[in-house]
Amino acid sequence: MNKEFKQELESIFRDITVNITDDVTPVIAAAKPQILAILRFLKDKGYGHLAMISCVDWLKEAQFELVYLVSAYLKGDNEEPGQEKITILLKTRIDRDNAELPTAIPVFENAEPYEREIHELFGIHFTGHPRLLPLFLEREYKIPPFRKDFDSREYVKEVFDKIPFVEDKE
Amino acid sequence: MDRNQIKKWLESPGKMGHKYSLWAVYFCTGCGIIEIPPVITSRWDAERFGVLPAPSPRQANLFLITGYVSVKTLKAIIKTYEQMPEPKYTVGFGSCPINGGMYWDSYNTIKHLDKYIPIDGWIAGCMPRPEAIFIAVTHLWTLIDKGMAKGYVKYRENYGRYRENQEKALGKLEWPRLFPIKDENE
User: How far apart are CA B136 and CA B144, in angstroms?
Assistant: First the structure.
């Protein structure tokens, strides 16, 4: 992870911000159509492990931020020089109203459960995903519960608090 | 054996048997289960009180619910509770089963567990110390002695209401009713 890597990235992909400093995880911010290409590029570079996909809801800016965390397996037992930073963050922002994103399964197959989880909790649609079924939740929610405009207190008042105690009915 | 208890043993041997052999379902939910390994192993040794983890709910009569109950866990709790033979005693461990605890406004956590299954006693605290389990067990002994630990009878009598509450939280349940539901209008 060095300047050459940054230059290579910036020469291949347009309109991306690469932030590589010595003390934080390297961050690549890119636009939505480039995500798959960058993931494939990183995979070819040796970052062959998708650690997680996460999502941040920016309510005021009306955007979702998708965060891909990819990391490299070290070669051999000892860390090679220049390989101390083995995790890269890849970020992209999408519109909140039309929350759609191509699925990362063609590049990293283990993206499937992460994308199902994000679909369930944030309501983002991943085009091309083979089965976007509910993963954890048993109940149905009008607004996906991890969106910032989901009022969990109101939901609790409406649903759980309205269930009466068994003694109260008598 | 305590000489003072000989009379009790002769009067109601069944009750005394239940009382001194509380077998707990090894059911893990939430963070409270982290207190159970030291309780059943040599440091606190729950077997002094006759409490043992049971291999199956069908051989157990004590149900410790250790921590927050999500909607999915409630399903498992109801299934487990209905499999246990009577008499059975339930104890809610920690503040989360009581009223949700720190998950009081969570979208997917059951707030009051006693709306869905009967609870004989609560151990408050977040987390309660292992000693609290023994205090609860000795309290439960007193309750059993006085015939006050009647949660399972309550469940049988008010099964219609419990089932209704369960269906409100979980939607349609896929297992059959445990008891026939009495018509309240009769």
Answer: 12
Report the alpha-carbon angle A102-A88-A21, nearest 5: 135
* Calpha distance B66→B122 (Å, rounded): 11
Task: Kindly state whether B2 is in contact with chain A, defined as any CB-CB distance less than 8 angstroms.
Answer: no
What is the value of pTM for the model shown?
Answer: 0.84
Judged by CB atoms closer than 8 Å, whether chains meet at A166 and B165 is answered as yes
Whether the per-residue pLDDT at A101 is higher than 80: the answer is: yes
The verdict on B150 touching A (C-beta cutoff 8 Å) is: no
Q: What is the pLDDT of residues B8-65, one digit of tens each?
A: 888 888 888 888 888 998 888 888 888 888 988 999 998 888 888 888 999 999 999 9
DSSP-assigned beta bridge partners for residue B122: B92
In angstroms, the separation between the Cα of residue B107 and the nearest Cα of chain A is 5
Which residue's entry shows tokens 């492990």? A49
Which CATH architecture best describes the domain B8-170? 3-Layer(aba) Sandwich (3.40)
Kindly give, in sequence order, each residue whose CB lies less than 8 Å from that of residue A162, ignoring residues fewer than 6 positions away: none
Check if A145 contacts B (Cβ < 8 Å): yes
State the Cα–Cα distance between residues A18 and A91, nearest whole angstrom: 10
Phi first, then psi, for residue B21 (nearest 5°) are -135, 70
Task: Tell me the ipTM for this assembly.
Answer: 0.79
